[in-house]
């Protein structure tokens, strides 16, 4: 017997055994907000409240960014010590974004049209009739969203969406103000141009003497008074870090470099003039100093001049001397030029 001639009961039983049979859509059940205007009004106020909270949180983000000291630390139970500014910015921006999302979801689930619609698949290239239908459906969707009949939601949503981008605009404040002369001065110059600052061994934390620096060695130094307890320690060390090496006086090619050294001991900025990486690879035979980031190479026997790599400037030298009373190495004033990478207003 052919398949076309099978009894109808056989076809029905085959359909019942089909694991991929289309179950169809369940019967539509109206929501409470669809049949109760008071419930709809209550949902409208809830959505609007979420958008208002978002606006207040955005205002709190801006106020926190402007008023809270970036170095302020607070102690929070379980979390310990955290930065007050980071905590305030994270909480306020998180609340602002969450309330917009929660408001939109609550709006869609309680007030927007809840009718189930089945759309048949069609070819990727739509016909003019389909495009016209899409426009009609869009217009119908706009009407179904009831945004025209719910002005409170519309206004508060627009307000929340308009305020949130201000969070990103305020962050542009970090692009300024311009550095001015801040990059021209380091902790070495805190006593003025003619002031003396004792050089501290960065590893031991003790003052350096000339005999501590042997030929072929590389010693890292920092200015006295710059301690890790200082909240600006990392910022200041990013400019004030130096390295010291001992050369034979007759190996020094520059007269100025010789005058700024002490018995062949020279001090240079540890910060590469390319992109600001810390330098620490020293080749004692050639007196070359290599930056590990992009292989810029500097000649410490020739004013720290660039001999290879992308760096465009020599390493700044720090003038040093010895305190006759204590025997400690000291820096004479600050660097004569800005340390680290070049910047557009360096002059």
Description of the structure:
- The protein is an alpha+beta fold.
- It has helices at residues 8-17, 32-35, 37-67, 84-110, 128-144, 151-163, 165-171, 233-240, 255-259, and strands at 73-76, 80-83, 196-201, 219-223, 242-246, 265-269, 281-283, 288-290, 297-299, 305-308, 317-318, 320-322, 329-332.
- A seven-stranded antiparallel beta sheet has the order 11-6-5-4-3-13-12. It has a four-stranded antiparallel beta sheet with strand order 7-8-9-10, with no helix packed on it.
- A hairpin with a 6-residue loop joins β8 and β9 (297-299).
- α3 runs antiparallel to α4 (84-110) and α3 runs parallel beside α6 (151-163).
- Residues 1-6 have low confidence and may be disordered.
Report the average pLDDT across residues. Answer: 86
Largest sheet: 7 strands, antiparallel
What fraction strand? 5-15%
- Low-pLDDT runs of 5+ residues are 1-6
Number of helices: 9
Quick synopsis:
The protein is α+β, with helices and mostly antiparallel strands.
Question: What are the main properties of this structure?
Answer:
single chain; 347 residues; alpha+beta; 4-stranded antiparallel β-sheet; 15% strand; elongated
Helices and strands, with pairings:
Elements: H1 8-17, H2 32-35, H3 37-67, E1 73-76, E2 80-83, H4 84-110, H5 128-144, H6 151-163, H7 165-171, E3 196-201, E4 219-223, H8 233-240, E5 242-246, H9 255-259, E6 265-269, E7 281-283, E8 288-290, E9 297-299, E10 305-308, E11 317-318, E12 320-322, E13 329-332
Antiparallel strand pairs: 1-2, 3-4, 3-13, 4-5, 5-6, 6-11, 7-8, 8-9, 9-10, 12-13
Helix pairs in contact: 3-4, 3-6, 3-7
